[in-house]
């Protein structure tokens, strides 16, 4: 078959397939044009998932007759000052969106620049343009796209349901709204819900307000500011506490020069920064904004501009990892406020255990639902081990009477309060001035031991303690060989082992921080960790795996009775230790309830 030149309509439809994949792609291109035009308010109207109508109206600079006639020509753009593609200061620059849309839909553009007597209107259908005609419009530009993909039925057939297409459009608008909080957005999809984002003031507070509109109030209440600069690259934004996490990465938003992107490098940097404080199957909530010179990033690697390529990816990754770690360390022992909500929801108002007078059935307490009618289930007396004078029918598990004097009074003003009791030999109950705190003793001490191990390793190596009688651990022969192959690295972490016959190891020294602990369980878990890490990973580089396993086996176990002094010492050390609000797996180490929460629980408020 001989080579031939394709006609312009076919070329435009091919380009449309690259740029306009679905209605959401058209919305993205048109809204970005409005942002580049300096709009302060953008209205988006959708019908039938974008199939029958997409309307974008803005109050931007608008176009005169000359620009309006050129805007639907291929590769015509106002967003390049010269022919240097490295100077991209706008969101769009290809000059393909409008002609591509006009090739597969009925496109109508109405625009009026400031100072013009009236607006002008242009219609494009199947790449055929009508002459410009006068039109009524106050200021800015209105773009209507009707019957999208009617001329490409194959593409139309592969669109999803209206609800799915609407969801994709909503996601696009949300991301652009987060990237540009100073612009107001109105989105109507024809469904019951509409989305409105009012223009936010400039600055950190305005940005956090816009992020909260998209990511929820819980993010606003648990967000840490992130700010760092290095070699002309600036990073800003907010990151959620480690205890505020999700099962997927859908609440991770990344922006480069105001452009929403999905970049593996950036997501990898986020995973690395949170590896120390979050389980690998959980994902933090965050929104990060990278600003750098256009010459340092290539935004032309994807037709829809959804991906970018950095000139120095290592520098960007290091900046993100360092800034996130610094923000997390600055949070100290702080845990997410969502833990309080989860705790409150675990309490259910129940009917009192006594019979009402006159044989009447008591009504539900004000503010409570039908659960208030459920029978009262009192816990067995042995479930409580109070520290002060409550005779629960069991021996005390903690004697906090030493903390009832002046020292305890001072401790009430501390963030984690004064220890009052140990419950179920697992949880520490502490009182503060305006509420109480419940601490998981094992999870909290696990984090403390882990942080000490990291500090020792960074300083001079983990201090070791010799065992009077070596601990012999029987393993699978392959696991034993795997551990012995890493003996030198394990010794740096404080664990000294040597072979003791086929499939057995003798443990001669352990990290001093761990004390006795469950040495056999530790060695077996380390064997599992090494099997997962593989032969090439260095243990120091994967300290989160190995040291966390050691810390877990060396921390205060659930079921161990603590004295008042031990409990208070644990609370004070938590307050002074970074990341102590969550254990090594990202679970919270404590929950806090304010008196106001408790009063609402008992319908006092």
Describe this structure as you would to a colleague.
Strands 1, 2, 3, 4, 5, 6, 7, 8 and 9 form a 9-stranded mixed beta sheet that branches. The chain folds into 3 domains: 8-197, Heat Shock Protein 90, CATH 3.30.565; 204-330, Ribosomal Protein S5, domain 2, CATH 3.30.230; 333-351 and 385-605, 2-Layer Sandwich (Ribosomal Protein S8, Chain: A, domain 1), CATH 3.30.1370.100. With 605 residues, it is of the alpha+beta class. A hairpin with a 6-residue loop joins strand 3 (106-112) and strand 4 (119-125). It is built from 19 helices and 25 strands.
Under the CATH scheme, the architecture of the largest domain is 2-Layer Sandwich
At the fourth CATH level, what is the homologous superfamily of the largest domain? MutL, C-terminal domain, regulatory subdomain
Identify low-pLDDT runs: 349-406
In CATH, the topology of the largest domain is named: Ribosomal Protein S8, Chain: A, domain 1
Mass-distribution shape: elongated
Residue share in β-strands? 15-25%
Count of helices? Answer: 19
| Distance between the amino and carboxyl termini | 83 Å
Count of separate structural domains: 3
CATH class of the largest domain: Alpha Beta
Rg for CA atoms: 31 Å
What is the overall pLDDT average? 80
Number-wise, the strands total 25
Q: Specify the biggest β-sheet.
A: 9 strands, mixed
């Amino acid at each position: 078959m001989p080579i031939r030149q394709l006609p312009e309509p076919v070329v435009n439809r091919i380009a449309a397939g690259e740029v306009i994949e679905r209605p959401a792609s058209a919305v993205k291109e048109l809204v970005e044009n409005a942002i580049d035009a300096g709009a302060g308010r953008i209205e988006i109207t959708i019908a039938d998932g974008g199939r029958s109508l997409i309307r974008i109206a803005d109050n931007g600079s608008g176009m005169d007759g000359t620009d309006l006639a050129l805007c639907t020509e291929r590769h015509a753009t106002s967003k390049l000052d010269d022919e240097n593609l490295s100077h991209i200061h706008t969101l769009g620059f290809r000059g393909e969106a409008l002609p591509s849309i006009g090739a597969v839909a009925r496109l109508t553009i109405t625009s009026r620049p400031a100072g013009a007597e009236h607006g002008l209107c242009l219609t494009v259908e199947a790449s055929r343009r009508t002459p410009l005609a006068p039109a009524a419009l106050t200021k800015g530009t209105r773009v209507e796209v009707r019957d999208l993909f009617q001329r490409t039925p194959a593409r139309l057939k592969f669109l999803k349901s209206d609800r799915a297409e609407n969801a994709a459009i909503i996601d696009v608008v949300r991301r652009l709204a987060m990237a540009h909080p100073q612009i107001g957005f109105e989105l109507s999809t024809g469904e019951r819900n509409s989305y409105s984002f009012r223009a936010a003031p400039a600055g950190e507070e305005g940005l956090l307000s816009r992020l909260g509109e998209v990511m929820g109030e819980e993010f606003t209440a648990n967000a840490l500011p992130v700010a760092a600069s290095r070699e002309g690259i600036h990073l800003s934004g907010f990151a959620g506490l480690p205890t505020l996490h999700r099962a997927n990465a859908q609440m991770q938003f990344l922006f480069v020069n105001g452009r929403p992107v999905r970049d593996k490098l950036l997501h990898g940097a986020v995973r690395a920064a949170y590896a120390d404080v979050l389980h690998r199957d959980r994902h933090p909530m965050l929104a990060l904004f990278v600003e750098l010179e256009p010459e340092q990033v290539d935004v032309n690697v994807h037709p829809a501009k959804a991906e970018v390529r950095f000139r120095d990816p290592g520098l960007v990754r290091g900046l993100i990892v360092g800034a996130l770690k610094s923000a997390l360390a600055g949070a100290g022992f702080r845990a997410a406020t969502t833990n309080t909500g989860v705790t409150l929801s675990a309490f259910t108002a129940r009917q009192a255990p006594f019979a009402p007078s006159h044989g009447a059935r008591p009504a539900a307490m004000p503010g409570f639902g039908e659960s208030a009618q459920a029978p009262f289930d009192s816990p067995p007396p042995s479930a409580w081990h109070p520290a002060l004078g409550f005779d629960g029918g069991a021996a005390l598990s903690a004697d906090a009477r030493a903390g009832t004097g002046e020292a305890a009074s001072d401790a009430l003003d501390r963030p984690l309060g004064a220890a009052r009791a140990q419950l179920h030999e697992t949880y520490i109950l502490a009182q503060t001035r305006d509420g109480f705190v419940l601490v998981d003793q094992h999870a909290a001490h696990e984090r403390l031991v882990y942080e000490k191990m990291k500090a020792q390793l960074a300083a001079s190596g983990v201090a070791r303690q010799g065992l009077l009688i070596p601990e012999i651990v029987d393993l699978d022969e392959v696991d034993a060989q795997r551990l012995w192959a890493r003996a030198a690295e394990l010794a740096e972490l404080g664990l000294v082992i040597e072979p003791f016959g086929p499939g057995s190891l003798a443990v001669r020294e352990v990290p001093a921080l761990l004390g006795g602990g469950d040495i056999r369980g530790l060695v077996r878990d380390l064997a599992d960790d090494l099997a997962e890490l593989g032969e090439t990973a260095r243990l120091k580089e994967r300290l989160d795996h190995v040291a966390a396993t050691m810390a877990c086996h060396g921390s205060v176990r659930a079921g161990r009775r603590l004295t008042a002094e031990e409990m208070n010492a644990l609370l004070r050390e938590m307050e002074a230790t970074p990341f102590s609000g969550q254990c090594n797996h990202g679970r919270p180490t404590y929950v806090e309830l304010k008196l106001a929460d408790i009063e609402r629980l008992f319908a006092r408020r």
